[in-house]
Amino acid sequence: MKKVICTNNEGFELEFNVGEEYEVERELDTTYIVINKLGNKHTVFKINFEPAEESE
User: Fold this and answer.
1) Is 12 exposed, middle or buried, given 0-12, 13-18 or 19+ CB atoms closer than 10 A?
2) For residue range 9-45, what is the model confidence (pLDDT) as tens digits?
3) Distance between CA atoms of 2 and 11, rounded to whole angstroms?
4) Per its UniProt entry, which superkingdom is the organism in (predicted)?
5) Which residues contact 55 (CB under 8 A, 6 or more apart)?
6) Total number of domains in the chain
7) CB 3: neighbour CB atoms within 10 A?
8) Owning domain of residue 17
9) Do 36 and 24 contact (CB within 8 A), yes or no?
């Protein structure tokens, strides 16, 4: 499953920490639907996250 890394958590809920990876459930044009380590789904703007290194 694709993962993204949080790059800026200003104004975000505390569940997102800079530098941590989050699983992507869906990728839309300007947002990701991600699952945090508590298992909660959130819609986040792509500008605040960057793709994690993909290991294939």
Assistant:
1) middle
2) 777 766 789 999 999 999 999 999 999 988 999 999 9
3) 24
4) Bacteria
5) none
6) 1
7) 18
8) 3-51
9) no
